[in-house]
Here is the input.
Amino acid sequence: MSEVRQKPRAPLLPGVVALALSTVYLIALLAVEKQPLVIGLLALAVVAVLAAHYMDWLNPVARSFAEREGTLSVYAILAACVVAAFFHDNHFVLLLFVTVLLYTVATLGLNIEFGYAGVLNFAGASFFGIGAYTSAVLNTYTAVPHLLVLLIGGMLAALIGSLLLLPVLRTRGHYAALVTIAFALLLKTFLEVNDVLGGPQGMQVKGMSILGWSFNDNFEVGKIEMSFYLNYFVVSMLLLCGTFVLVRRLERSWIGLNLDAVRLDETAASCFGLDIARWKITAFVLGNFVIGVAGALFGMVGGFVAPNNYTFADSLIMVSILLLGGIGNPWGLVVATFIVVVLPEKLQTIQEYRFLLYALIVIMVLLFRPEGLLPRPVRRYFPGWRA
Amino acid sequence: MDVGLLTQYVMNGLMLGMMYTLVAVGFTLFFGVLDIIKFSHGDVLTVGAFTALATYIGLRSVGISSTPLLLLAMLVVAILAMAALGMLIARYLVMPLRSAPPLNTLLITLMLGTVLREMVRLFYPQGANPKPFPALLPTGSINLGQFNLRLDNVIMLAAGVTIIIGLRLLLDRTKLGLAIRAVAQDEETARTMGINFTAIVLITFAIGSALAAVAGVMNGLYYNEINFGMGLLLGVIGFSAAIIGGLGSIYGAILGGFLFAALQTIGAVALPFASAYKDVFAFTVVIALMAWRPTGLIQEKISERV
Amino acid sequence: MSRIVRQLSRFFASALFVGALVATAQAKDRVKVGFIGPLTGGVSVNGIGGRNSAELAVKLRNADAKAKYEYELVVLDDECKPNVAVQVATKMAADKEIIAGATHYCSATAIATVDVYHKFGFPIIVWGAVLPDITYRSKYAEVHRVNGTMIDQNDANAELISKLGFKNVAVIHDTTDYGKGHNAYFSKSLAKLGGKIVGTFGVTADQQDFTAELTQIKALNPEVIYFGGLTPIGVRIRSQMDKLGIKAVFDGTSGIVSDAFIQGLGPLAEGALAFREGASTEKLPGGKFFLENYAAQKYDNPPEAYGAFSYAAMDLILDSIEKVGPDRKKVIEELANVKDRDSIIGKVTFDDHGQNTVALITKYVVQDGKFVEWDDSEYAAGKRKLPGQK
Amino acid sequence: MTCLLEARGLTRRFGGVVALDNLDLAVVPNEIMGLIGPNGSGKTTFFNVVTGIYGAHGGSVTFDGADITRASSRAVYHAGVSRTFQRSRLSLPLSIFDNIMIGNHKRLNQGLWFNLVRRGEFEREFEDNYAAARTLIEVFEPRLAERMFEPVAGLPMIDRRRIEICRALISQPKLLLLDEPSAGMTHDETKELMDDILQVRELNRSLTIVIVEHEMGLIERITDRCVVLNFGRKIAEGPYRQVAVDRQVQEAYLGVE
Here is the structure.
């Protein structure tokens, strides 16, 4: 239907402006140290968003993101690189940034299970941990190329996850919730008591290195000293882009449709020939794989793994990110992850109150905006495709 | 194995089982009336224990030192406070979400649990540290070979049994119990029978949370130490117990509670690997049970109208 | 709420304090130094004691008109958890403004973070952790330690209990490197003296119920239960021993030398043994000076066993910065040639691994709700007897 | 063999209640058969047993010559049976197009590789199916064809019904089971719906329809033949006019025993 494509598409400008503004804002927020300034900036953000909401400036933005996603994604990547370049020698900010990227990847994986297929998974952090421990063990005891280690991490997460398939497929609702919750506790205790994996002490993880390029050494471009975290930023960015495309294509295909159908009404779905088990398995395995890969890379970034990093509470934080951003909406996840990871780091005063804060936020979201900050729009198989 | 030693293990198992059961019964009550999981239950237990401790310290500071009086006061205050808390939770967090998907209720109560836990950690003086809990029960003990029978454990077991029997009687013999069971059976019919649905739900939550308070105090008396994190694991275990027993059935909860304790004890002593693996073992069995009996040992009927 | 209130008041206090200094000493440049210790969790009293002591060192230095720089102390909490420790250590080391730090009470956290400090070239002095590997596993120029290692204290421990005629010992250790280390060194030295380990049990740091392990131990009926771990589990195990009617000596390590242990157990603490490297603070060369100044600050928390070491570590860092200026590389070089340096804990000498050599070990026994030095105790005098002592 | 769908001695119990009692029922190709009877007479249960949602406790069901008694819902659908549900079972958050496509499952390429990587081919398949769905829904309500990518949650009951029927028709089944299409609709809406169904029939003469309905006007106008159930048994069979005057049937509706 080529003729229908001629119809005018939503303008690019609003999206670009929004991106530019948020980039500048992000740089400012990450740069300032003085608490009053930080608080001021945060207040500013809230006010700005509310204002935009009432001036009805948000819908144009949403529309141009919906229809010009391809172009805007490229701009978004550029924006991220600008931020990274700005902080090229600031270890801590870059570490924070990388953390955001990898958590986004992980929650994208969780989103496939939770958001699309409706397969409950309260053990997100556990699968993240399986990935991290994989890289810890392989980097310590073997010479497996590190890019391969990432893959293996993902596969192990998927594999161990599939041990749960039988109960996950057979149970429903609360019963299904228990399966993953029990697994989360089981895995953490196992890691704690298992000496080979370092017990509660945890393990060191050797930094990444590809073709002799060691990621843990600072390097220089011209005369400018660069933080070694830039290496990780690049890889994490690539990983995020890959996952983002994967999740997008998944959603915008018959498979995405099947997953939704399974989530919304199993009986009806099976009356139209859907193989419930097949799609649940697809989602669960694929999701855990993605989470595992992110975990493997995060293990190398952090340089250390311990059971206490992968507790039930951490899994809950992942779920919170999902709900906060808006289940099923990748862009929402990016925003939510930034809020959840960066806010407590910048706002020293709330550092130790952060769990309390997250919990309260999620409760508020569930009570007053169950669809999250950026609700998932209805499926468009091809952005900008009009009829 | 030496008989005395065996009895010792059984005794340890019974004590754990009793505490798990009290928690599990709460879960199963809530599920009965509202078909929801109130995950904050375990942390209500924590708050209950800390309330009791605060009461104790308060009373001691004003010079009251009679042990039975202190114990009574602690129980009363904790029970009343938790009952109230339970009602509040039901009224403002659970009831509003009735139309929403059950997942949301699960999540909101999970998060509420975190809120309670963090509140204790942050706002109770030095709440992050484990707190010594007074031993208020007579600690006399008889040594039978390897078996050391402690009076306080016996008292606690007896108390637990009485509470559960009492609850059973309340549900079976009283008008209130009838109303609760009616609501659990079918909300609509209950309404048409002229039962005040909201009131019944609130009362049920009060009862369940009161049980949590008792379990909390019992936990403190048993370990002589409480900490802000104690509720999380107890909650999950109680939840597991209720689930493997079969949600909505009191007997299921009891069965599940003691089963879980048994699993832990067996995992600790009877199995070849190190005792530290006992929870790994217990939870593995739980998952296996879910695969075998997806709706619990005492089956709960699932009927779906098409 | 009192916690918040206290934090607020502390915040304002320090604000005023800094304000005053800025007013007086505009000329001096500000230099950031760091402290890491467990400020929350079961061993927080030790962490806070250490924090206060380091803070004291900084305050005294800032009050000193001859000091070249204006020092600001950045305090982070490792919660005695390896994973948290690595996070905060990364945070501190990654901040180029912070020149050096006095870090870690828990061995589990110290051993986990040494690589981080090395990665970022951040000079630190360990003030409390006793695991030998922290300094000896790898030769990092960044890592130093003012307190001794656990080796000597375990020799002393084994020696004492065999002297008391105890043969059969059951070992419980937390499965962190700290507990494992203690288990290894103690078992070795006990074997030398002909004692017998009847059973070894590893437990996890947040375990609540030990009845299963203890019932097994009961069946082995040892005369002594050696515990390699920190106060919180120590308290639980000791009280559950009593529940199961186990009458054995509770033989602890430096990890339980803290008032929290006694508060947690009350009368049950009586007769528990513990060991610590270095003289008890009162008997240290600068002990009096330290305790007086500490008292003058009116902290609501005692310096605890390792406060003096924390003070000494921070003082050493400040000395070095005064000497070579706020530059990490130079500070590392400076610390490398610390030799017979006088400090409140006596002469400090860093060997090529940055380890200070502390020979002296203090033996403690809990008597009437206090950690009393063994040799001064009624147990040594024979007035009282440990359970099962001949 | 002339029957498209044939049930022999079909029996299904729920606890003590016998919902289908040894029921014999035959549907011949290209007819519109009305399945009527008082509430709880087993009409919907019959649909659920045929479509494999419930298993049968006795007897057999054959469709198009093949035995589907034990077949799963999926298998029955793939064999060419589509249905609508008494209480509308659309996926409300999804768009009209998505809901229709769920019904088209067996004609869509479900391969991971095809869906994720070969986007070019996927786009072509998508466009073809979009065209098909659009033409189908235009038969019912051109308005809806303009709103293909809006969530169905906002639509009135009658439109949802239409979409449900489209979802059932898009895969071009041999047999269509309509379970009380008029439920929850006004009289006029029911009329409209009737026309819709007849139109469908015009479109595809080879389609066979079994319709469960309480709205007798609708039954009278569109069915060639009726089967009356009571307590899971067949009590009458024949053209509507004939069964309508049948004494047993009237008793059944009046509840006389």
About this structure: The first strand of chain A starts at residue 203 and ends at 204. The two ends of chain A are 8 Å apart (CA to CA). Strands of chain A lie at 203-204, 209-210, 213-214, 219-221, 224-226, 304-305. The CA atoms of residues 106 and 157 of chain A lie 12 Å apart.
